[in-house]
């Protein structure tokens, strides 16, 4: 695996609103075909970006993909004052981020508890998902659990209620030890802190209970999308049989067992190199054949079909309101498309519109 580029440009944090009005924070970074991540249980876009547990994940994926990730409702930089963490609400969040990011088609990766959301989205919007990936994920958390398993889940739920917000990390270390048992003390301490920073105790308790009942298992046989399942053999947070079930039930899915006990693969362990190589190879068909992944030679390689329509109308002299009317879009959607265009073309300021439209008349 290539040495990660630690000088990678910083992520761009943006916001959108879900169908019920909840404000969702999402971030974009990297270069290459778009990869939208259906997020895991705990995240904080800025805290993760600087962490010894997630930084290598973000940097390495960003070398060959444009990574779009978000904080779930109630977590990180998204709105915290939320009580609805149901599967329909979470699907709405993913739909909002997918639309706001501005890509017509993209690969979709489900991490951990993002599985049921990604499965549901892919079943509803198969025309937008080029390929589907799962990392330490599942279709239904409660599938196949014994009475002892259910009792343990209830114990975890109570542990969150009484220990999550305590300054002492003793209670939170239980979850950290399940997620990264082979980590250093520095890495474990950071994940201890993430739990407190990412969500309040009440949200952590409520969201976990609602997610436990999310079930997308019946949709798996319907998925007709290239699928890659990556799962650690010794995963203690989400046991390997969940990954095996995904690969065995989704038509033509491929399973890659990872030689690790860590739910979150750590930098330097052999399984991480395997993971990166597998993901990069799997995404390769999404890279336009007429250019190397790091070089964009034509607008068609950079912008979506809708963004090109918007840019051409802007070049014809139409203002945003006229563009919205011509394409039957909302004014806000047109503004979002233009902002995405400026970002992708690397232009900004008062002259951004002129610089972007000029590209239409510049030979590749």
From TrEMBL:
<dbReference type="InterPro" id="IPR050471">
    <property type="entry name" value="AB_hydrolase"/>
</dbReference>
<dbReference type="InterPro" id="IPR000792">
    <property type="entry name" value="Tscrpt_reg_LuxR_C"/>
</dbReference>
<keyword id="KW-0378">Hydrolase</keyword>
<protein>
    <submittedName>
        <fullName>Alpha/beta fold hydrolase</fullName>
    </submittedName>
</protein>
<feature type="domain" description="HTH luxR-type">
    <location>
        <begin position="296"/>
        <end position="361"/>
    </location>
</feature>
<dbReference type="GO" id="GO:0016787">
    <property type="term" value="F:hydrolase activity"/>
</dbReference>
<dbReference type="Pfam" id="PF00196">
    <property type="entry name" value="GerE"/>
</dbReference>
<dbReference type="InterPro" id="IPR000073">
    <property type="entry name" value="AB_hydrolase_1"/>
</dbReference>
<dbReference type="Pfam" id="PF00561">
    <property type="entry name" value="Abhydrolase_1"/>
</dbReference>
<dbReference type="InterPro" id="IPR016032">
    <property type="entry name" value="Sig_transdc_resp-reg_C-effctor"/>
</dbReference>
<dbReference type="InterPro" id="IPR029058">
    <property type="entry name" value="AB_hydrolase_fold"/>
</dbReference>
<dbReference type="InterPro" id="IPR036388">
    <property type="entry name" value="WH-like_DNA-bd_sf"/>
</dbReference>
